[in-house]
């Protein structure tokens, strides 16, 4: 991360803004795991689904590879504009691209490859996002999804209120899908609201590709 006091002050300002106006950004406990994964992987080309105010996009740009480029998708025109105003005050403006629109549609228009994907948008759409990013990934890509435990309802014993039951059901489906997806290893971190870290295994993916080519000959 750039060691500048101005950048650190900007991050603190964004955290304060998110707290005051109830904008969901990755929380402090989840942030520690998030940053450790980014610093381990050091991605070069990042896709983020759910910009909000641009906080996590800045963390991705600052902690990825020295040449990291971030493409971030945001449904809300107002939030996309706000994110742009924050990012413009950072050292990373030239390395972050904000695309405003429905992520489900935008994902079908993008060209990869991306070696890191961060999902933090509509919780009920995580499975759809996961499936749509597959053609855009490098063989060793990492996919991180936030809020997968959703207030403890997804894997806890407490029954979710009626208004959350569909979200909880779909997040359980996401965890099941990523835990059993061929060519992936997935780990669930319970800090924060739950982070799912799914890593592609290059050897397994190459084996699957060769097998598919053999059977299609």
Q: In percent, how helical is the residue content?
A: 40-55%
**What's the SSE pattern?**
HHEHEHEHEHEHEEH
Q: What distance separates the N and C termini?
A: 48 Å
Mean pLDDT: 89
What would you report as the Rg, rounded to the nearest angstrom? 17 Å
Give the strand order, joined by hyphens, for the main sheet: 3-2-1-4-5-7-6
Give the overall form.
globular
Low-confidence stretches: 209-217
Q: How many DSSP-defined strands?
A: 7
Helix tally equals 8
Oligomer: single chain
The major pleated sheet works out as: 7 strands, mixed
Q: How large is the share of residues in beta strands?
A: 15-25%
Structural class: alpha/beta
How does this model look, in words?
The protein is α/β, with parallel strands linked by helices and 217 residues long. The chain contains eight helices and seven strands. It has a seven-stranded mixed sheet with strand order 3-2-1-4-5-7-6, with helices on both faces. Strand 1, helix 3 and strand 2 form a beta-alpha-beta unit. Residues 209-217 have low confidence and may be disordered.
Topology:
Elements: H1 5-21, H2 28-41, E1 45-49, H3 55-63, E2 69-74, H4 77-87, E3 96-100, H5 103-106, E4 114-119, H6 126-133, E5 137-146, H7 165-180, E6 184-189, E7 195-200, H8 202-216
Parallel strand pairs: 1-2, 1-4, 2-3, 4-5
Antiparallel strand pairs: 5-7, 6-7
Question: Can you give keywords for this protein?
Answer:
217 residues, alpha/beta, 8 helices, 7 strands, 20% strand, disordered C terminus
């Amino acid at each position: 991360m750039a060691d500048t006091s101005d950048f650190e002050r900007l991050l603190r300002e964004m955290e304060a803004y998110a707290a005051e106006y109830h904008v969901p950004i990755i929380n402090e406990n989840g942030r520690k795991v998030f940053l450790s994964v980014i610093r381990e992987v050091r991605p070069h080309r990042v896709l983020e689904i759910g910009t909000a105010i641009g906080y996590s996009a800045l963390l991705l740009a600052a902690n990825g590879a020295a040449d990291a480029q971030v493409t971030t998708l945001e449904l809300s025109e107002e939030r996309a504009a706000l994110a742009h105003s924050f990012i413009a005050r950072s050292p990373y403006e030239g390395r972050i691209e904000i695309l405003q629109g429905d992520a489900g549609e935008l994902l079908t228009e993008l060209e990869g490859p991306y070696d890191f994907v961060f999902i933090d948008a509509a919780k009920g759409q995580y499975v759809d996002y996961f499936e749509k990013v597959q053609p855009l990934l490098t063989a060793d890509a990492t996919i991180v999804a936030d809020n997968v435990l959703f207030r403890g309802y997804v894997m806890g014993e407490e029954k979710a209120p009626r208004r959350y039951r569909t979200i909880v059901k779909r997040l359980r489906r996401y965890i099941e899908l990523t835990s059993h997806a061929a060519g992936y290893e997935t780990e669930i971190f319970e800090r924060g609201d739950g982070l799912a870290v799914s890593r592609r295994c290059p050897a397994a993916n190459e084996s699957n590709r060769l097998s598919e080519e053999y059977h299609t000959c």
